[in-house]
């Protein structure tokens, strides 16, 4: 019973570490644990909007196109 508990705990730790070490695609970076709002392209009638992201952010100087989910230099 103790072995099973230890295995479950180790498995959970390994999964957590893999999630923390996930790499971002080129042109994006991990904002770390203090994530907040990333500027994204909104609807075509809007210039930009903000959305809460804790994954990868676009590098400075680019914004996320909410339709294609790609980093672009300006909103379409």
Automatic annotation (TrEMBL):
It comes from the Eukaryota. Keywords: Signal. Residues 1-22 form the signal peptide. This is SFRICE_030993. It comes from Spodoptera frugiperda. The lineage of its organism: Eukaryota, Metazoa, Ecdysozoa, Arthropoda, Hexapoda.
